[in-house]
Amino acid sequence: MSLNHFKKICQFLHFNDNTAQSPSGTPGHDRLHKIRPVLETLKKKCLSIPKREALSVDEQMCATKASNILRQYLPNKPHKWGYKLLVLCDDRGFAYDFEIYSGMENDPELRDSSEPDLGASSNIVVRLARCIPRNQQYRLFFDNYYTSPELISYLAKEGILSLGTVSKGRLGKDVQIPSLKDLKKDKVERGFSEEWVANVDGTDIVTVMWYDNKPVVLSSSFVGQEPIQLVRRYCKKQKKYIQVDCPQIVKVYNQHMGGVDLLDSFLGKYKIKIRTKKWYLRLFYHLIDVIVVNSWLLYRRVGEQKQTPTPLKLKDFKFDLGKSLCMCGPSITKKRGRPSSMSDQIEIKKKKPNTAILPPREVRCDGFEHFPIWGQKRQRCKYPGCKGKTFISCEKCRVELCFNKDNNCFRNFHQ
Q1: Alpha-carbon 258 to chain mean position
Q2: Per-residue pLDDT tens digits for 65-94
């Protein structure tokens, strides 16, 4: 594909009918109208995957500095400017559901009739938790931006266990959480913790304050302070690692909360870096990256369930995916002009140097246009276990294969 052809495709790439969009300020106006079909299609596919027990909700940034009403500024993120996504992940980084922040998250039309109004931030968790099966011991984790006693009580009534860090201002005046100044004044040792239990709308909620470098407050409906275990922490005064008491609620939170951050680390390795001025294309490229990472994580999960090795790393998985999409099925257009002297195959890192680049199984067994051609030089057969030499190769796979009365490696290779 030429560069001009690719630019033309990007120029006319649209996902929705712009004439069907409601004008701004009128009922039914959707700021994400241009990319809404893609969002709903990908969400439907991701929601069809069975969920793991530990799930978490957190923000994710699609980095950009383009001038758009959807752009947000999050100073604590590595990429501070961009489009904010609210993602439901498991502890392996698989994204099951997501929303793009558009400033309309507290719209009453987005709430079901059975869902309470818990505030703009808590309502996000309520919407993302709709897909979680009820009364099956699923655990949901979130940070202090979403956590409130009312949210934890609502999720408990729905049969979903929850845990999150919480701001002191959302606990009310009945729970007196000591400040950092008070703890230093009383000379409280590092590792000190205190527990409170309150009943909110018929649900017992445990709140634990743990003093590490700073006081950390967490609330939960299924885990509390006990059992207290020792953890390894670095002490600046003594300039060495020391053992510090740590409540069970902190250990559980640290173990299962980082799903979205893990997904961000996967996305940052080999993401699409195509620059564009169109906001919906930037989000489209980001969603492609998310779906490819989801596919790789699902590939690893299937390997674990079948107890078979899954040797492909994320980079190699993307190479095989791209090669399969380009080569599977019949070719649409024939090449014009002189044949290129450069190989069209995608290089894959092998254990041995100068080894043949074999196509993926999806390409070998697709049954389209695997024609034998006669080469100018006799080469070693690339079928595993065959040591013969042949002039015949596959036009599509571009590998030499025996095709004679004694050996039919050409047929065996494409089965």
Answers
A1: 11
A2: 888 888 999 888 888 899 999 999 999 999
Cα(75)–Cα(64) distance, integer angstroms = 14
Going by pLDDT thresholds of 50, 70 and 90, the confidence category of residue 348 is very low
200: left (phi over 0), alpha (psi -120 to 50) or beta: beta
Sign of CA dihedral 335, 336, 339, 343: negative
Helix (H) or strand (E) holding 269: helix 259-269
The answer to whether the beta carbons of residues 76 and 107 sit under 8 Å apart is no
pLDDT score of 335: 52
Q: What secondary structure letter does DSSP report for 379?
A: E
269 CA to centre of own chain: 13
- The whole-number pLDDT of residue 198 equals 87
Whether residue 10 is predicted with pLDDT greater than 90 in this model: the reply is no
Q: What is the number of residues in the chain?
A: 415
Nearest to 315 by CA among 361, 260, 269, 363: 269
Residue 63 backbone phi and psi in degrees, to 5 = -65, 130
Residue 298: left (phi > 0), alpha (psi -120 to 50), or beta? alpha
Give residue-wise pLDDT tens across range 227-238: 888 888 888 888
pLDDT: which is higher, 109 or 235: 235
Pairing of strands 139-142, 54-63: parallel
Q: 3-class secondary structure for 124-148? A: HHHHHHHHCCCCCCCEEEECCCCCC
Q: Which tens digit of pLDDT belongs to each residue from 145-166?
A: 999 999 999 999 999 999 999 9
Is residue 215 within a helix (H) or strand (E), and if so which, with residue range? strand 215-220
Instruction: Check if the beta carbon of residue 255 is closer than 8 Å to that of residue 246.
Output: no
Measured torsion, CA atoms of residues 245, 249, 252, 257, in degrees rounded to the nearest 10? -110
- Which residues are CB-contacts of 21 (< 8 A; sequence separation ≥ 6)? 29, 30, 33, 34
Neighbour count for residue 14 (Cβ, 10 Å): 12
Q: Report d(CA 232, CA 412) in Å as an integer.
A: 57
Q: 53, 77 in Cβ contact below 8 A? A: no
**CA 87, chain centre distance (Å):** 8
Structure tokens at 101: 């922040």
Between β-strands 161-165 and 139-142, what pairing exists: parallel, antiparallel or unpaired? Answer: parallel
Distances (CA, A) of 142 to 200, 309, 333: 19, 33, 50
User: What Rg do the C-alpha atoms of the chain give, in angstroms?
Assistant: 28
Distance of CA 154 to the CA centre of its chain: 27
Contacts of residue 324, Cβ cutoff 8 Å, sequence gap at least 6: 360, 362, 363
Of the chain, the end-to-end C-alpha distance in Å amounts to 30
